Amino acid sequence: MNGSALHEPPSASAASWRIALPHSAAAVPVARALVRTALAELEHGADSDTAELLTAELVANAVEHTAGDSPIELVVELLPGGCQVEVHDPDPAPPGDLTRPNGDEPDPWQEHGRGLLLIRALSSSCGHRPTDSGKAVWFRLPSVPPQRRPV
Predict the structure, then answer these.
(1) CA-to-CA distance for 1 and 21, rounded, in angstroms?
(2) Does pTM surpass 0.90?
(3) In 76-92, which positions are buried (b, 16+ CB within 10 angstroms) versus exposed (e)?
(4) 7 φ/ψ angles, rounded to the nearest 5 degrees
(5) Average pLDDT, the chain
(6) Residues contacting 8, CB < 8 A, separation 6+
(7) Pick the residue with more confidence: 97 or 77?
(8) Phi, psi (degrees; rounded to nearest 5) at 86
(9) pLDDT at 140
């Protein structure tokens, strides 16, 4: 993995992971793998496929829309009711229409323009906040109840 990771052992209420990612497209698969690994540790975790997809969108946006080569930081928190994923980047500007759609439909012929729509549609909540070095963009997913198994 690129970057340094810090794993804090699970406490009674939550566990969290942090990793500094390179400011390049190579960060996306690393971020997806970290989310997949983190969610595997939850007994009744959030939907891993959705968490990986939304994480990939946030990381790709941070790489594409921020200048420079400062690392991007990924933070995954496992909470009793699900998980929260944050992506920190050095640009203090808010991430477009993350929490408030602008009313424009994405162009069906373009490859870009659906990431924030996916995050709004598939997460239980999402947003952004300023940080000392830029901003953090986040989403939350609820825990998925365990499936009933045949007896």
Answers:
(1) 9
(2) no
(3) bbbbeebbbbbbbbbee
(4) -110, 120
(5) 81
(6) 15, 16, 17
(7) 77
(8) -125, 145
(9) 96
Q: What is the mean pLDDT of residues 16-35?
A: 95
Burial class (CB in 10 A: 0-12, 13-18, 19+), 35: buried
- Nearest Cα to Cα of residue 136 among 78, 92, 84: 92
- Whole-angstrom distance, CA of residue 87 vs CA of residue 47: 18
The encoded tokens of residue 151 equal 């007896």
Q: In which residue are the tokens 């953090």 written? A: 136
Please write the tens of the pLDDT for every residue from 135-148: 999 999 998 876 65
Please give the Cα distance from 151 to 149 (Å, whole number).
6
Q: Under a CB-based contact definition with an 8 Å cutoff, are residues 99 and 92 in contact?
A: no
